Amino acid sequence: MTRTAFLLTLSLLVAQAHAQHLPMRTPDLKAPKLFDGMPNFSLRPSATAAQSGAWGDPRTWEGGSIPKPTDSVLIPPGLKITVSGTETVKTIAVRGVLSLVSGTLTVNTLQVLPDGYLELGKSGQPVTAKLVLGGERLPKADDPEQHGAGLLVLGRLVAVGEPKTSFVRLVSAPSAGASTLALGQAVSGWKVGDKLAIPDTRSPARRGKSASQSETVTLSGISPDGKVATLSTPLKFAHAGQERFLPHVLNLSRSVTVTSKNATTPGHVFLGESATTDIANAAFVGLGRTTTSPLDLDKNHVARYAFHFHHAMGPFAGAWRGKLSGCAFDGSPKWQLVMHGTTKVRVENNAFWGARGAAVVIEDGHETFNELVGNIAANCPGVTPAEVEPGQRTDKEDVGSEGVGFWLANAANLCTNNIAADCALAGILKFPRPERPLRGTLSYFVSPTEEAASRELRFPWADNVPYPVPFANNEVYSSMHGHEFWEESAFTVRDSVAWNCHQGLVPRFTEPMIVDGLIVRGDSGALGDESDPTIGVPNRYYPVTGRLKRLDISGMAIGVKQQTPRGTNEPNGRQFDVLIEDSVFACPVGVRIDGDLHYKRDAVGQSRTLLKNCKFSPLTPNNGGTRAVDMILDFGNDINALAADEVYVESFQGKPGANFRLYYDIQAPSVIVPIATPDGGIHNLPAEQDSARYHDGQEHFRIRGLKEKGLTNAQAWAKYKKAWAGSVAPITAKKHPTLGGLVAPIVASNIPPLFVQPRALTGIQLDGDSSACWGANHDWHQLWVPLELEIRVDGKKVGNIRADQYNAVSRRTDGFRFAFPSSVRDSREHEISVVVAGTSEHLPGSPMRRVLR
Questions:
Q1: pLDDT band at residue 602, thresholds of 50, 70 and 90?
Q2: Rounded distance, CA 469 to CA 417, Å?
Q3: Is the dihedral of CA 541, 547, 553, 557 positive or negative?
């Protein structure tokens, strides 16, 4: 067992079970209710195994009778029952071993207790078998939380099917009517009769409101070299690519299948508490009862998803609590694979198809060290009418119905080399749950009870990112947004791809995030309209992302729509400046600078945007010119006309020495500077400016400006050192063929330094956030015990830190930060350990390897 697993095990076993979402003590297997209020289906069996043996052998069973379809079956500890034919029963409770080696087992509820083991094949011994679940909902009096009619795992689940290539990229784009598919690599395990799926590849602007053209077909043959698939019926639609990017074909058939008996009461897979699993090459088809309709305890119960890790936090052996590889998930009314309150699940090389809400979900934001690697999620249509942002429902807990491939509530899990296609909202979404009480900083949690206070080691929320680059090499196509990230966390998104998306990468309030490497390819024949153009990176949600590098954007109406940072923005203090560097654009507008002179902007606080070593070219060689940079000031009602807003271009078109400062037209010397008004005062700009530039049908504006009326920029600067946007364009500033506004040459040494996110973190940021115990009532008072921590580099102590106390009134913790001494910041990689002082107990994420700069 790893140190992290040991710590979790130790802490969880002593935790008080004061809410259904907190882990219980060692379970009483004779209790009527188990984990999460789940009924104990082992207590009243009508058929009990008497000895190990075949299910169909009467000698296996007490009384010598094989179980009937109406029976509730118990497999006691120490016994192994093998199924190799077609069997049907009402309920099975497994406390020994149940092995499905062939045939079909149909059961309404199959419960694997903590001492039980369900086996559908095992490593090196794949099987061909089917497990059919659900069909009949249990009376609410017997099952108030509606756990039944599914597979409920509190013990061990292993399933192994025949190996099969899960998905492959096509080598050429198929046209409508095509009966063969040219595959980019040889596939293995594909058989006649397999179900194949191909996502819609059209851009949202091109498809408009038409139905999705994602489609499924049946395989009728495969070439000897495994590179050409023949279809039983021709394709209905064309599936075009974009330059070198081409669509994928998914194989949704497996020799091991878990499915539902009917659509009235579909089955579901639930793994909780001490559950562990190892699954390879299995199919999960038509599972899940929770839908995208509003949650309701009677009509649409939460947490009955297709495959759901639900607070599985008990002890486990080996590196992973759960592994799913080479599997296929086909259809779900909301979510397909969910990690909730669960750590250390590896999800690799799986194919997800047809999840209405979201395919793969990291649910709450306190999950860490789960890894999503090399999967594909496609055909996630979302709800109608579309939900264009998460968290918009009245019930803020009811999220994930928007149509997303990979839906993650934090950046503390690994998401690399994944593919998402045909998603209504986004292929990859990082979104913190709204109004969700979150766990605090790495600390021991103390629950005030009548007994001795219990302690539980807590994970951080999102600020302690165990993977410096949690999102890398992911590709999204044919979705509204390619990659969408919400809220501040210090991490890097690297080498992403988005093609035929309406917006390529959407950062929202993600100031410390770094985007390092992004390819966006748009549908140049469908650029949207002026009110809703296609955009590579709409960096416009405050606080904006401070660093974008190695962007390669073409075929979009606008490459980057860059809102200028607000400098000193009350009450949050200094915001990072914006640096866009080493990038290439082939768009009608490469970068659009949207100046922001927000009313709360401090006139002294600088706001700087620098475009460094960026190259711009026309969309195509023959379609005319391009605007490399546009300069726009678009005001609302409230402005600070004097706030400094500076824009620089260095090494324009990759040419050293081609350096410029860009000014807004309104910064020309002769333009009148407005005077200040009190809050709610009458708008008093000159009439010609009012009607031409500022008037929006309202009469009342708040303006921070001069106290003296009628001064031009030049006059105001000479008298008060104040002007529109904080400076006056020099008389040498002129119009430029491709750069917007007024452009003045400048030497590189005169470009001021930027306040930007550092290239690498210089310490372990262990900051907390507004948090309360997840799963606890908001009115329940919690306390945090300060925790002394020791920091080690390469095994040697370099310092101590102390976790701050939690304030039960404001529900805030200031967190803590440790800055490494200069002696170890040598730009080399080191092993960094964070342990409880005076012990060898590592905190989650420790040890880690980081380059210290």
A1: low
A2: 12
A3: positive
What's the rounded Cα separation, in Å, for the pair 650 and 84?
Answer: 71
One-letter amino acid at 426 equals A
What's the pTM value of the predicted model, to 2 decimals? 0.83
Instruction: State the average pLDDT for the chain.
Output: 82
Between the CA of residue 196 and those of 151, 167, 328, 615, what are the distances in Å? 26, 9, 11, 42
The one-letter amino acid at 462: A
Task: State how far the Cα of 500 lies from the Cα of 776, in Å rounded to an integer.
Answer: 43
The answer to whether residues 117 and 156 touch, using CB atoms and an 8 Å cutoff, is yes
At 719, give phi and psi (nearest 5°): -95, -40
- Other CB atoms within a 10 A radius of the CB of residue 58 amount to 11
Reply yes or no on whether the pLDDT at 395 is more than 70: yes
Residues in contact with 135: Cβ distance below 8 Å, sequence separation at least 6, in sequence order: 108, 149, 260, 261, 262, 264, 265, 267
Q: Please, which pLDDT band fits residue 688 given cuts at 50, 70 and 90?
A: very low
Look at residues 221, 160, 219, 213 and name the one whose alpha carbon lies nearest to residue 195: 219
pLDDT of 777 strictly over 50: no
Separation CA 640–CA 605 (nearest Å): 12
Distance CA 679, CA 840 (A): 58
The torsion angles phi and psi of 589, rounded to 5 degrees, stand at -130, 120
Q: What is the DSSP letter of 622?
A: T
- Structure tokens of 100? 């499905």
| Phi then psi dihedrals of residue 631, to 5 deg | -120, 110
- Token pair for residue 820? 């490494």
Q: Are 40 and 34 in contact (CB under 8 A)?
A: yes
Which pair of structure tokens corresponds to residue 597? 């002179």
d(CA 432, CA 455): 26
What does the alpha-carbon distance between residue 701 and residue 797 come to, in Å, rounded to a whole number?
58
Q: Collect all residues with Cβ–Cβ distance below 8 Å to 130 and sequence separation of at least 6.
A: 103, 104, 105, 256, 257, 258, 259
CA–CA dist 846, 2 (Å, integer): 11
- Cα 762–763–766 angle (5° rounding)? 145
- Residue with the bigger pLDDT between 690 and 129: it is 129
Residue 422, helix vs strand vs coil: strand
Residue type for position 211: A
Return the H-helix or E-strand segment holding 362.
strand 358-362
Q: In whole angstroms, what is the distance from residue 730 CA to residue 734 CA?
A: 9
Where residue 818 falls among pLDDT bands split at 50, 70, 90?
low
- Alpha carbons within 13 angstroms on the beta-carbon side of residue 564 total 34
Kind and range of the H or E run holding 246: none
Please name the amino acid found at residue 440.
G
**Which of 770, 757, 178 shows the shortest CA–CA distance to 510?**
757
- State the Cα–Cα distance between residues 491 and 16, nearest whole angstrom: 34
* Residue 780 falls in which region: left (phi positive, over 0), alpha (psi -120 to 50) or beta: beta
Distance from C-alpha of 604 to C-alpha of 487, rounded to nearest angstrom: 26
Do 256 and 159 contact (CB within 8 A), yes or no? yes
Query: Averaged over 324-353, what is the pLDDT?
Result: 96
Distances (CA, A) of 125 to 120, 121, 161, 561: 10, 6, 8, 54
Which range is least confidently modeled, 191-200, 308-317, 611-620, 829-838?
Answer: 829-838
Which tens digits make up the pLDDT trace of 735-753? 999 999 999 999 988 888 8
Report the Cα 110 to chain-centroid distance in Å: 31
Q: Among 383-397, 453-467, 526-540, 605-619, which stretch is predicted with the lowest mean pLDDT? A: 453-467
Question: What is the arithmetic mean of pLDDT over 760-787?
Answer: 27
